[in-house]
Task: structure prediction
Amino acid sequence: MKLAAAPISWGVCEVPDWGVQLPPDRVLREMAGLGFTATEAGPPGFLPADASIARRQLDERGLRLVGGFVTAVLHDPARRAAELAAVERQATWLAAGGAASTSTAAATGDAGYSAAAEIDDGAWGALFVGLDRVGDIAARAGLTLAVHPHFGTVIGRRHHIERFLAGCAHGLCLDTGHLALGGADPVAVAKDAGGRVKHVHLKDTDASLAARTRAGTLDYADAVRQGVYRPLGEGAARIADVLACLGASGYEGWYVLEQDVMLERAPAEGAPAHVARSLAFLRGHA
Result:
């Protein structure tokens, strides 16, 4: 299993006012201390803007860059040029940093991930055109595009994922936690997507908190604070079955251990316990 870490497991996130943001040196040091040899990039600004400096910092910790999470508003043609320019800047940085893929989420245009998102048929057509443009950008940079269903984006619920899979041929970032939170079965999505699974984010999901979040009675950020994302094997996302399905399908890409958390204060030094618990689970299922 090609296993990578993610800064969001340490609470580092692109959303404004998303709790305490730990410094890169600490996060990278604790990743390496857990035995990771690879990581995703985290939000823009977490690692240095000069990709060569970022790459050197990772090398010093025995880490390599495997990819990064990118958001863009792609369903609104009036915003497309500016959004694609931002995607190209991030893709260029990722490639220079040594990454192999970009996980791109179709943002609503609102800050955070709490707003419900439904778009009409015309906007879906525009979204698919926008994804084609992102695919072109990724290809020019030498990156693989993996479209990332994410709660609070325009591809966040089960019917959105079904429409994406039916409407275009781009690769998928299989995020077990966000799929389960949006009401999809991660195992069924993995089977339906087949060889289109190009990247995997692993996290588990608390079924009760997820149901309240889907129903709109619990705000997304509050759900994260309360622990809607769980260590692997401690939730309802069927992680063991997902791993078995991907293994049987011949998936050979990266598995990113990515449990979204929000920190109210900087914890004492030492790697997060939830990451260690997930690693212990994977050792029993790798």
In short: The beta strands are 2-4, 38-40, 64-72, 101-106, 144-147, 171-175, 197-202, 204-205, 229-230, 254-257.
